[in-house]
Design goal:
The structure is a homodimer. Chain A has 16 helices and 17 strands. By secondary structure, chain A is of the alpha+beta class. Chain A has two domains: 20-334, BirA Bifunctional Protein, domain 2 (2-Layer Sandwich), CATH 3.30.930; 346-439, Anticodon-binding domain (Rossmann fold), CATH 3.40.50. A nine-stranded mixed beta sheet of chain A has the order 1-5-6-12-11-10-7-9-8. A five-stranded mixed beta sheet of chain A has the order 14-13-15-16-17, sandwiched between helices. A three-stranded antiparallel beta sheet of chain A has the order 2-4-3. In chain A, strand 3 and strand 4 (76-80) form a beta hairpin. Chain A starts with 19 loop residues before the first helix and ends in a 6-residue tail after the last helix. Chains A and B meet through helix 1, strand 1, strand 2, helix 4 and strand 5 of A and helix 1, strand 1, strand 2, helix 4 and strand 5 of B.
Chain lengths: 447, 447
């Protein structure tokens, strides 16, 4: 076996892989988001990562086609999912007679982008999605619920975000009103990048589409409207009498009314929010970190008129939210948001001598039975090297088990941060460690 | 959009997908296993699902090759992982200078088998793996820890299992002793299926390999040895003086000694355990459900001499365990082990009239803030249809919100199981629902 050529261990480019302590933190964020979803009565789904290409690519056309991992296995043309929404549509269409509507489901899972590896782009990333799907109809309560849920996710992560909400019917109605309905996709593409390109370039691109200078100015001014919903309504309600425009305004009004009932009073109405994907047809929203240099959205969502149009004749309106947790975590790591030294899989190392090794192992077992994360460094033979290992691993507590300690049942518990040593019986040790854990977990603790 | 041809919504054959209530249960099992891993100081890893084919197929040869999802993306030859062990080897080899050893990691994730879809075989399945990797050396404490952990996983799932432990060196030593070392792979393949084929067929196959009738009988008798370790040792220790045989016995003795220290006294020594994969070189173990008709192993593990031999010159011995949770859950579902009606995402439905709808929604929000899974059936307009929906969804509690209730702040809480109704203020409702939740969660409750 040693004669063979060694293979250089590499992971695929553009694929994300955290070191264990980072992973501890990342997993805890995922868990917190999952708890929020469950607390709000969303049901879990876990669809396969592979789907028939026919189903996955139904709505997406050529561009997505290139950006997916697609392959043949035998005769079967399959793809790795590039989002969690199309699998949801496929699932709901398959099981619509068995599900209760509105169907509230969450899914936290990896999605795949087959694009060329490049800095800052992930080819495998997690999405935390929650959606509410109606059967034929769906009240704006659902829109408000998704925005409320989105805010709760960030609260659970202790992150301050600005959440901006719009309704695409307002811009769509305006565009229809100036008779550019047929060009609305192109116009939305320009409006979607307004924040990133100079005003003149946007004007130029809109004029190329065919809009007059005055129309361009009015449209851009419209997207720049923001404030409380009441302020926005006051400023635009007489702008145009187009039916879709007024419908958008009405939906937005209902959404904000329900948001207030749900206790969200600080959410901003901002008509610049477009949210790329062209399947959104009503409410759209995005979240932006408040205390970060990262200016992109860290998630968002919106309303789609008909989730299942490619699979079913039944109209199934939906509204959903998604936290871009991979990007978010990447930003937080880069900005040193976390104190990685606080992430430790070991609460207490049991340090022994040759003669007390087995007694120490028994203590590890008892501590674990009592829900203390205890560890024995059994590969480090000497007392000294075990202490060194505890230090190197930044373990907070060490339990010293000498022959006397085994005889008396009083062990020395050393706090490696303060150097403090106390002699305690096993039950007292368990109590002490649990109290310390509680104190550390308390918000605003001064330790 | 409605003119286009609809696509039949299908999932890929052989891929597993649970309905939401089943998924609630399945996720809770995964969470419990994860808690066990963390409580025993294992660190989380989450490697990508895709790997370079070169890395993934290094050790496997032709057979696995056919059973993987493998494809080219651009020039890159990649595969979906078929287990969590090879990615672990790749990760440890890449980061061996940054990790602390013994490196204890767990990973719960999906793996992929590209085999032909057939009944009872899954092409996407979860594995719950925990491994301990040493740098050059690794004590049998680690073997005992993995077996101990394996038992704890099943305890956390409230499942009774028989855990059988062996050490492959015992059979390997015997085979060497009778001078069939070069044929040991073929012999192990026959021994591995002893439980499934008639004795005569096994004899015939071993004789074809070249063993004499007496050797066959001795070897098969050896695999049929089981009992406490002491009983097994007594019965076989003088059977052969081969060094590897005696080494296996010694390792097994240490493993059982440490198991006893860790509190596992009921684990059986059974030399029939081979555990297929030929990378195991020492300890091997498997778990079997006690109260089930399913006779296959629901997990197991073992010791491998050198995890990273394909990637690195450093010798890295490891020992690991894996719970085959997809198969296990499938068996438990088929045997009606779960009461799915108990899995409900809603604890309390708030039922309103037209005039009290908004007051009801505010109550839902307040209940959720207080950690009660409350829901409003906002698509069902009338009181009657909301009650019907609560019934249909088997929600245990309904909060009735009429105009009088809103005025007085005393709401009617109805237990839908018993029909009992009580009038309570919001704080009392929260308390009542939490008490009920505690009572339901108590083991051996008589409710």
């Amino acid at each position: 076996m040693n004669n063979q050529k060694l293979i250089t261990p590499r992971k695929l480019q553009g694929f994300w892989e955290l070191m264990p302590k980072q992973q501890m933190l990342f997993s805890s964020l995922l868990n917190r988001i999952e708890e929020v979803f469950k607390a709000n009565c969303f049901l879990p789904l876990d669809t396969p990562i592979l789907e028939y290409s026919e189903a996955l690519l139904a709505k997406s056309g050529g561009e997505t086609d290139k950006q997916v991992f697609r392959f043949l296995k035998g005769d079967t043309d399959m793809c790795m999912r590039y989002d969690l929404t199309v699998p949801l549509a496929r699932f709901v269409s398959m099981h619509k007679n068995e599900l209760s509507f509105p169907f509230k489901r969450f899914q936290i899972g990896k999605v795949y982008r087959g694009e060329r590896p490049q800095k800052g782009r992930f080819r495998e990333l997690y999405q935390c999605d929650a959606d509410i799907i109606g059967n034929e109809t769906l009240s704006e309560v659902a829109d408000a619920e998704c925005i409320n849920l989105f805010e709760k996710c960030f609260n659970a992560l202790n992150l301050d975000v600005n959440i901006l909400v719009s309704n695409r019917k307002i811009l769509a109605g305006f565009i229809q009103d100036i008779n550019f309905e047929e060009k609305s996709t192109e116009i939305f593409i320009v409006l979607d990048k307004l924040a990133k390109i100079p005003y003149e370039d946007a004007m130029k691109q809109l004029i190329e589409i065919g809009l007059s200078k005055t129309e361009c100015e009015k449209l851009i001014a419209l997207t720049k409207t923001n404030g409380t919903f009441k302020e926005v309504k006051k400023s635009i309600s007489n702008l145009c009498q187009n039916e879709i425009f007024q419908k958008g305004l009405e939906e937005l009004e209902n959404t904000f009314k329900y948001l207030e009932i749900l206790g969200n009073n600080s959410i901003v109405c901002d008509l610049s929010i477009i949210r790329g994907h062209n399947y959104y047809t009503g409410t759209v929203f995005e979240g932006f970190l408040k205390n970060s240099e990262y200016t992109g959205a860290v998630g968002g969502g919106g309303r789609f008129e008909n989730l299942c149009s490619y699979f079913s004749d039944t109209k199934m309106p939906g509204v959903g939210m998604s936290v871009g947790i991979t990007r978010l975590f990447d930003v937080l790591l880069a900005e040193n948001y976390f104190d990685l030294s606080q992430a430790n899989e070991i609460e207490c190392a049991v340090v022994t001598f040759d003669e007390t090794f087995e007694a120490g192992l028994k203590l590890v077992s008892k501590l674990r039975q009592n829900d203390i994360k205890a560890e024995s460094f059994y590969e480090n033979k000497s007392f000294k090297s075990q202490m060194k290992e505890a230090n190197r691993r930044q373990v907070k507590y060490v339990l010293i088990v000498g022959e006397d300690e085994v005889k008396t049942g009083n062990y020395t518990l050393k706090n490696m941060t303060t150097g403090e040593q106390i002699s305690l019986e096993l039950n007292q040790i368990i109590e002490h460690l649990k109290d310390d854990r509680m104190a550390s977990a308390m918000p605003n603790n001064n330790n």
